[in-house]
Amino acid sequence: MSRRLAQILESRIIVAMTSMYSRAAWELVRAVRGKRSQVALSRRLGYRGNPVTDWEAGRSQPDTIELLHAARLARLPVNDAFERLQSGALPRTSDGSIDLPRWLDSFRGSSSIAALAERMDRSRHCVRRWLSGESCIKVADFLELLDTVTGRAHDWVAELVPIERVPALLEQHTRASRAQSLALELPWTEAILRVLETGTYRSDPRASDCADSGLAGDSTGQRRDGAGAPPGSGRARARAGALRRDARAQH
Question: CA-to-CA distance for 120 and 85, rounded, in angstroms?
Fold first, then answer.
């Protein structure tokens, strides 16, 4: 594959992912609004006009802080959503609300702002201002940044509202739930799944054939070389093979 073609494909993937987060943003606004009318929610948020209509139509977006305020007005479990991803005390501002920039930055670890910006196809200046709190972060950008640093934006959303109300993230959440269920049922598969998700494995041209023969097995669930395997491994290999394909699809 030529470098130019790879750049085009990467660019299309970024556009598709950005579109996914934009859809998730307006679906999330609608889910947070619940049975309250758009006008009623706009009034509760202090607007004379009706920006909620534009938010849900994807013509504009609220700041994430504004969405969280709407969620609290609807008595949704805002704190639980944040605690789902981070154990221990949440960073707070002087008025007691969640310090969103500090919370996001806590997941960055050793990753540089430049690296995050490159992964999101954004400017370093933009990402730096989000993480420093110098500028407000829109909902779609928040979801994308959260996914970039944790891979678990879907978990955050699922804790806040029923994930079925945010279809843009439903498939991602379903895949992750399947992986977690398999890891609990057959703990040895967790190590395999972690290897399958690494960039080194995915970049190895031998990986596909190796995984198909070593994990998926044949139709009877037996290794083709006849070597021994843990009890029930035929079913596990089939499921791990499916999860491997899901993991690749996510990346």
Answer: 20
Same domain, 83 and 9: yes
pLDDT digits (tens, 9 = 90+) for 169-198: 999 999 988 888 877 776 666 666 666 655
Alpha helices in 58-95 (DSSP H): 64-73, 78-85
Among residues 177, 209, 224, the one where a domain terminates is: 177
147-159 pLDDT, tens digit per residue, is 999 999 999 999 9
Q: For residue 155, which amino acid is it? A: D
Q: Where are the alpha helices (DSSP H) in 186-232?
A: 188-196, 199-203, 207-211
The pTM of this model reads 0.69
The residue count of the chain comes to 251
Sequence-separated contacts (24+) of 49-55 with Cβ below 8 Å? 55/25, 55/26, 55/29
